[in-house]
Amino acid sequence: MTRPQLSDLPAETVDVVTRWNPDAVARLKSGGSSQRGVFVAGPRRAGKATLVRRLRALDASALAFVDDSLDAGVVLMVLDAAAPLGREELSVLDVVARPACPVVFALTKTDVHRDWAGVHERNRTLLARHAARFTDAEIHPVAAGGSGVEALLAALLRAARDEARDNSPATESVLEQTRRMIVATARSVRETEPGAELRAERVRALTLRDGGRTERVAQLRGQVQLAKVELLHEVASQVRAAGASARSEIDRAGRGTLAGYPDRLAEIVGERSGAVDAAVTARLGELRSRAGVAASDPEAAGPPPEPVVPEGPEPRHRGLEDRMTILIGASAGLGLGRLVVSPLSMVPALDIASIPLTLALGAVAAWWLTRSRAHVAERAHVRQWATEALVHVRSQWEQFVLARLLAAETLVSEAIIAESRVAAREVDERVAQIDGELRRLAARRSGQLSSCERDLAAVDRGLQEVRRPAGEPNRRGERLNT
User: Fold this and answer.
1) Using a CB cutoff of 8 Å and minimum separation of 24, what contacts does 21-24 make?
2) Homologous superfamily (CATH) for 6-192
3) pTM, entire model
């Protein structure tokens, strides 16, 4: 009984091979062989290129050399006479030597290494241990001068002719080639993780899900504390400036000016209040800018509230100092009057007239001294009142600053939370899209692997039919009845 052809195999096997390897199926149907030429394999620096050139020099049309072992009808395994073959050579041999593909061995550089004969026998022993099919394998020694190339060419031609006698190796080769294609595709699908970029994007999106709300809120608190320190320092500076202006004006004020000075102090406080408001507005604008939000300050839309200056000072109460000033002024005035009219006392006619004059001068000096002392005391009284009034104004300014800071912090925090919610919603939507895409990719990957496994099982069943001994029936029913 002849070996089965591709058309004799199960329909599912034929469909899989036709889908995966249409070129090889077309060659089989046209009567051509799927094995085309010789594939040269071996370790690096074994002289493969030199050996191919010599073979072509002998007969360029006798053999065709291919670059893919799947397209080869014969494998030429090149070994180096420098040392016996090892794991590298055996690994290459396992990859390129299919079960139905003949292998011809060549040992190069025999003219360079004197112990090549020992290496030759050692290689035969190692090949026999590695696989039963290589038990009687012949290794053709080749020298650099060209000796042994003719025998190697003849062995390659014999192997190519023997391989082309039966079509079953061609069918088996197509099945093996198709199997390798399926295995390579399945390995690529398993090794390639689908959606790696999507997973990285998902991780980045979840990392920034809150829009950096925690960091922004922490930075906002630090900026608010810094602004509080700066603005309270500005309030203290304005209070000191207002106090210096008030003291300077009070020291130069007359009696009429002192009477209306509370109104003047209110004007000074109003001017400084505008400077405080401007500093607060500028600093809060900088705070919102650094926080990255566009929240507006509702208190900055209208004029700031004017600080309330306490009512004018109470009337100064006259005390013991004023009485003592009167006595001292009278005493000093009498003494001054006597000093002034002392020349008149030397004239007897004017001696009596000097007494009322002395009294008049003493009275005027006492009045001036008492009035001046009262003016100085009034200045001190107004100065003390201005100091206490500025303390009250400072407390109002500080309350104004803290209220604006608290309102700004609240608005900026609400804006940050609102932006964070929007960002979280956008991230959640994007993560949901990514999860859906990842599920689709995973389902597609699973489907590809399942399809590869089904196709691989169909090809394996075809290989079992092809490799079954010729005397055994192909159909399961016939095998059970024999």
Assistant:
1) 21/174, 21/177, 21/178, 21/181, 24/173, 24/174, 24/177, 24/178
2) P-loop containing nucleotide triphosphate hydrolases (3.40.50.300)
3) 0.49
